[in-house]
């Protein structure tokens, strides 16, 4: 059975009601809390800093899937381990010594993920694919929620799956940006194991039902089309 995980991106939450939105995810059928950390340097936007992230962590009951869009992420590995992050994902483009960074994340007790910008070739991960737990395919240019899905991401997901298989790696493939119920099935069919969705969930009228719909869409595919 091919069941995809759903990771709502809190970037699209109502920051005035952040606790309410974190608790909505707790009660939903979602699997992880996706936390986007942006520094205004690696990406043009700044999301939220440690006090807000600490508050999210305090109320969250599901694994914390932290997506770092910051330069020199090594500086914050211990901070996120102390915070209780389950998965810490760094950008390939932001790491000079990616192998060392991956080892440091694992040594700190977290799962290690590597994210790729839309222009970055999946095969650049060949020499670390066995060491990592997650490949994050960015299906928009990182920095903002609410952007349109980039169509060649399907091919990148398939490439990532192939690289994982060829190298006997256990890494999951996560896709992030412009995910909706419309493209969810096709993304899973292409090889995605985890779907991140921000605007589609939090800007909907009934986020709890939207998460349920996403989960159902992905399950149905596995039952009827595998
Ligand atoms: O990492 C990012 C953006 O850089 C994402 O996690 C977005 O927050 C996804 O938002 P939507 O495209 O689903 O609105
Ligand atoms: Fe993200």
Automatic annotation (TrEMBL):
HAMAP family: RPE. The active site is at residues 36, 176. Catalyzes the reversible epimerization of D-ribulose 5-phosphate to D-xylulose 5-phosphate. Belongs to the ribulose-phosphate 3-epimerase family. Pathway: Carbohydrate degradation. Keywords: Carbohydrate metabolism, Cobalt, Isomerase, Manganese, Metal-binding, Zinc. It comes from Euzebyella marina. Substrate binds at residues 9, 67, 143-146, 176-178, 198-199. InterPro entries: Aldolase_TIM, Ribul_P_3_epim, Ribul_P_3_epim-like, RibuloseP-bd_barrel. The keyword Ribosomal protein does not apply. SUPFAM superfamilies: Ribulose-phoshate binding barrel. Its EC number is 5.1.3.1. It catalyses: D-ribulose 5-phosphate = D-xylulose 5-phosphate. This is Ribulose-phosphate 3-epimerase.
């Amino acid at each position: 059975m091919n069941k995809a995980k759903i990771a709502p991106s809190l970037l699209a939450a109502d920051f005035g009601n952040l606790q309410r939105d974190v608790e909505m995810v707790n009660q939903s059928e979602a699997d992880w809390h996706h936390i986007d950390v942006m520094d205004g340097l690696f990406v043009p936007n700044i999301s939220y800093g440690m006090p807000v992230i600490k508050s999210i962590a305090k109320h969250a009951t599901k694994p914390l899937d932290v997506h770092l869009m910051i330069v020199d992420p090594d500086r914050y590995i211990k901070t996120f381990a102390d915070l209780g992050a389950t998965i810490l994902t760094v950008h390939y483009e932001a790491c000079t010594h990616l192998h060392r960074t991956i080892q440091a994340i694992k040594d700190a007790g977290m799962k290690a993920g590597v994210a790729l910008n839309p222009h970055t070739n999946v095969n650049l991960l060949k020499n670390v694919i066995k060491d990592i737990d997650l490949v994050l395919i960015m299906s928009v240019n990182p920095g903002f929620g609410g952007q349109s899905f980039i169509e060649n991401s399907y091919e990148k997901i398939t490439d990532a799956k192939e690289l994982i298989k060829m190298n006997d790696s256990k890494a999951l493939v996560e896709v992030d940006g412009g995910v909706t119920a419309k493209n969810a099935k096709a993304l899973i069919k292409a090889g995605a194991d985890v779907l991140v969705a921000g605007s589609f969930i939090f800007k909907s009228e009934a986020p709890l039902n939207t998460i349920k719909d996403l989960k159902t869409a992905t399950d149905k595919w596995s039952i009827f089309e595998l």
